[in-house]
Amino acid sequence: MAKYLGNTMLNRKYVSIISDHSDYSTQFESFIRPLEGALGLNLITANVLENSIKSIDNAISVIVKGGHNTIVLVTEQPALLEHIARMADEKGLIGENYFWVIAGRSLPRAYLERLRAAPNSPLDRMLKGSAVFRIIDPFMYQRDMDRFLINWMAQDSSLVSQLNSLHPLKGNNPFQVDYFVGTDNYFQMNDPAPLSSYIYDSVILTGISACELLMSEEKIPAKLEITVNEILGTRFLGASGNVSFEEGNNGRSPGGLSAYGVYNIRHGDIVNGLRGFDSSLTAIYQGSGWDKISATEFTYYDETTSQPTPLRTTNSNFLATGRHVVGLTLMGMAIANATGCCLWIWLMRNNKKILASQPEFLCVLCFGSAVTAASIAMISFDESYGWSVNALAHGCKALPWCFFIGYLIMYGAIFSKLSRTNQVFSFRRKKVEINRVVRPFLVVLMLSITVLIIWTAINPLAWVRMENKNDPLATSGKCESVNFSPLPFFITLMVMIVMVTISLLAILWQTKDIQDEFVESNWIFYGILAHLQAWVMALPIWFGIDSGSTNVIYLTAVVFLFIFSTALVVLVIWPKIFMWAHTKIYGESNNSKMRPRINLSGDKHVHISGLRSSQEGISHPIQPDTYKEQVSHLFAENSELKKEILELKQGKKTQLGNSQGEELPHS
C-alpha cells in the first residue's frame, strides 16, 4: 500500500491513518513506518477504540488538523466503518477532495458483497471512489494461464457428486436445501473462493515436507513428526506462486507471495431503498512493482480519473492583484522610458552634443534596459491568473536570460562608449572604430550566453509549488531548478557581472577629467552606486524572509529590477534631455563651461569615426606645438618679472621711471 500511494503512480506523500489497537493494525504500522523516509511519506496516525465514539471524534479531529486528503482506514472491525463515516462527514472529510483507502481486513470481500447503505448517506459517500487493498490469487487476473484455475475448471460431475455425498450436513432427504449442494457444472460456472490457492498450497506444503522428511530417514518410522523448521525449508511452485520462506522471520518471501490488488469501490444497484456496492480490480503488485489493469480505470468520488489533491491547502499564497498591477505598471514605465529615450536619441542624433555622446551606444543602453525590465513579466504571474504550470515554467526559464543579458548589454554599451572616448582623448589612435571597442563586450556576452544555454539544457528552472515549512497547509509557488542546485551557473554569471562592473569603474577613473559632454562620468558612477544599493537592499529580504511571504518577495524583486533597468538610462540620458529643453526655452548660455580638458601630448589631428565635423560635436583640430610656444614665452616673461621685483626689494635701483614701466612685458 505504501508503494502504491508513494510511487509515481499516485505520488500521494501526505497520508493519514485511522487504526484501532488490533494486532492487524499494529502489524500494518510496523510495515509502513520504515518506508516513510524511503518513499518520502508524511504520515499522521490517529487511533480509535472499539465502541468509543469519543475516540473516533478525536481521531477525525487529528486528521482535520493535519490537512491530509488521503485517509487510510485499518481495522479488523468492519462495523466501525459506519461510525467513522458519520464522524468524518460531520468534519467535512468526505467528498471530491478526499481519497479514502481501506485495508483488506477492514472491508472483507464477503462483507462488501452484502453491505447495504442508504443512498447519499455518510457511508455511501465515503465508499464511493474509495480503494480497497487485498491479497489476490493469480486466477483473479490471469485466468487463461493459471494452472490452478485450469485444473479447477477441468473437474467433472463425478467430483461434484462425490463432494455432495461427503457433505457433513447432509440429511435423510436428498432434496433438503439446508446445506450447500453443487450442480454438475459447478466447477465450470464458479470461481474458487478467495485465497483458496493458499489453502491448497498449505496442504501440499505439509505433504511435500512429510515426503522429504520420510526420504531422509534410513527406515520408515512408526510415527512421523514434522517440525516447523522442516516445513519452512520446503520450496515448490504452488497454486499461489513460488512457495518459499525467509530465514529469520518465518515469513513468506516477497518474491513468492501472491499478488496484491487494488479494488475500486463503485456504487451498485439500489434495491428496496438501499444501495449495494461493486468492486473492480484496477492495479496489481507482484513483487516488482504496481501495474495498472488496462481494461479498468480507477474512478474517484467525482466519477473522473483525476485524483484529488494530496494536501488540503488553506492558503496558496497567490500573488495579490494589487501587487500584480504595480509590478506590470513599473515594467511598462521602464520599457516606455527606455523606448522613449532611444527614440529621442535617434531623432536628435545630428545634434552636436548628442553626437559627441555617441548615440549608437546610448541606444544599445536603452535596449539593455528594456530587456532587463522584461524580467518583471516573468515573475508577475501564477496559477491564479490562468497560467498553466508549463507556461509558468517557460517564464522561469526566460528569467535569467532577461536579467543577465540585459545587465551585460547595459554595462557593455557604457564600457564600450567610455573606452572609445578614452582612446580618442589619449591620442593613442587617430581613428577609433566601433568594432574595435566592442570586442571585449562581445566576448563576455558570448560566454554568458553559453552558460545560460548549458543551464537551460541540463538544469532548467521550473515552476514548483511547495508547502511552507512553518505551515503545512499553505503553499508557495516559485522558480526552482528541477535537477540540482542552480548555484554553479548563478555564481559563474555573477562573476562575469562583477568583472564587467570592475572594468567599468576602472574606465570611469581613467576618463574622470574628460567633460560630461563626452563621458558623463559622474552620472554613470551614480547609476552603478544605485545598482549596488539595490543589491544591498534586496539580498537580506530574499534570504531572510519566509518563503510564504509571496507579495513581499515579489515587490522586492520588482523594485530591484526596476532600479536596475532605469537607473543608468535616467542618469545618463535625462540630463541631456533637460539641457536640450533648457536651450530650446532660454537659448544658449553665455557662461558655458563645456570646453574640453584635453591631453596636449600625442598626434596633432584626432578624428572619431561617426562624428562628421568639428562643428558637430568636436572642437577644431588641435595643434599642440602652437600652445607649447605660447607657454614657453609666458614662462620667460614671468622669470624677468621675478628678477626685477627682487632687485626692487634689495634697493639696487633708486628710481622707477617711465622707461622701467615700458620695459615691463605685457602678458
Automatic annotation (TrEMBL):
The keyword Acetylation does not apply. GO terms for molecular function: G protein-coupled GABA receptor activity. InterPro entries: GPCR3_GABA-B, GPCR_3_C, Peripla_BP_I. Keywords: G-protein coupled receptor, Glycoprotein, Membrane, Receptor, Transducer, Transmembrane, Transmembrane helix. One of its GO terms (cellular component) is G protein-coupled receptor heterodimeric complex. Residues 396-579 form the G-protein coupled receptors family 3 profile domain. It comes from the Eukaryota. The keyword Transmembrane helix applies. Its main location: membrane. It comes from Ditylum brightwellii. This is G-protein coupled receptors family 3 profile domain-containing protein. It is a multi-pass membrane protein.
